[in-house]
Amino acid sequence: MILNRRVLNRTTLDRQLLLRRAALSPAEAIERLVAVQAQEIDAPYLGLWTRLAAFTQDDLSSLLYGRQVVRGSLLRGTQHLALAGDYTWIRPLTQVILTRARQASFGRATQGVDLDELAQLTREHLAGRTLTRPQLRDLLLRRWPEADPPALGWSAQAMVPIVHTPPNGIWGRRGATPFRLAEEWLGRPLETAPPVERLVARYLAAYGPASVRDVQRWSGLTRLQEVVEAMPSLRTYQDTDGRVLYDLPDAPLAAEDVPAPVRFLPWFDNLIVAFDDRRRMMTAGQQKAVCVGAVVHPTFLVGGTVGGMWDLRNGVLTIEPFHPLPDDVRGELAGEAARLMAFAGAVQGSITWLPPGDRKPVGPPGSAMA
């Protein structure tokens, strides 16, 4: 069966809770999405707000303080929020990604550092307490005084399952990142050999139908072709370019004529980063504007696909459409923008509309690009 991009678009939006706001709890939504992108502190709050019928900032903060949801390095080695139970098996699967990324970024700067010893010392220093990255780095420097200090801190985070505890991850809170051993914070050990098939199945439930390359781009794992092909009962389709797409056998497809409301997506939103082939969501030209290096800009959806970019700073929500918009669409966006600003606490804020190409690229608040 061949699936056109419109069917793929609507099916993905449905599974991503973007065709209608869902009557799910925040924990249920995070489980549905497998893990929520959290490289920018406030982004998960906005990503859940745009997907759920009822959601407040305190809803997610309570889950973090209550240890039902944790923040740490997971998919692609980047920061995510995940349910505590999901973290225990996803984190071991992503160790290979973190090890590879550490070697690429800091291998030369940590020559002479025994990584097994580094991991053991990291565990000893963190046992029973919370340390910031600089505090842990300074303790490790006593053993390797000639090593590059930042490289030691980041290497420790890559080699040992560490979570970032509240107030890290709380709306509007930035500062030193606290480190805590994941097993201690969760009160349970991590799984020793979780099956990668579990991750593939969870991905397909939330993002499918999708190709093997899509799964690999989303997860950061490689060499999954044989794994996926060997999974029993997966259903296969083709897209209009002949690519093989996989899906769960009982997962429904959405009709291509289902209406899609406007939606605002935050920095690094799951929907945008979940595919190798992102044409079901935007054109190649739009992708170049949205995905710049490691940065994925906030976008808004019009008619189910990316219609432009936006940003909220200092009480001003800036909207930059990629193309001229009809008055009724601008009105719908303005209404959704007002609700977004109210959620973000910018009740006295204003909206600025920019023509395509007028906005200077900036990074997330608090980043080096900002």
UniProtKB/TrEMBL annotation:
It comes from Nonomuraea mesophila. It comes from the Bacteria. Keywords: DNA-binding. Pfam families: AlkZ-like. PANTHER family: LMO0824 PROTEIN, WINGED HELIX DNA-BINDING DOMAIN-CONTAINING PROTEIN. This is Winged helix DNA-binding domain-containing protein. InterPro entries: AlkZ-like. GO terms for molecular function: DNA binding.
